[in-house]
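Problem 12. The chain below contains 113 residues. Write out its predicted structure in C-alpha cell notation.
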Amino acid sequence: QVQLVQSGGGSVQPGGSLRLTCAASGYWFNRYDMAWYRQAPGKQRELVAYIEGGTGYVQNPLDAVQGRFTISRDDARMLLFLDMKNLKPEDTAVYYCNYRVVWGQGTQVTVST
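Solution.
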C-alpha cells in the first residue's frame, strides 16, 4: 500500500525558515517523480515544486517561491523534502506531498507576525 506521511511545518514569523518532510512507503520511491503542492484558504491547490525520479531534475513552476523554496529527495531513506526560507505571509497554506494520485495528509504552514 502506497503511503505518504508528512512532518514539519508549523508557525513562523516572516523571514523565517521551515522544512517539510514526506516519508514514502509501498513503492519504488527512487523511480518516480514527486511533487509538493499547497492550498491557501479559498484558493485552488497549486504546484509548488517537482522533482523527477532517477535524474533528480527539479522544476519550480511557481514564480512566487523561486529562489526561496528548494525541493529535494533522499532515495535511500525514501524521503522528500521542501526547504522553505524567507517565508512570507502569502506562503501560508496547507502543503501536500504528492505521488501520482496519492497525497500526503497535509501540513499547515502559517507565516505571521
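Discussion. The two ends are 41 Å apart (CA to CA). Students who got a different answer should revisit the alignment rule from Section 12.3.
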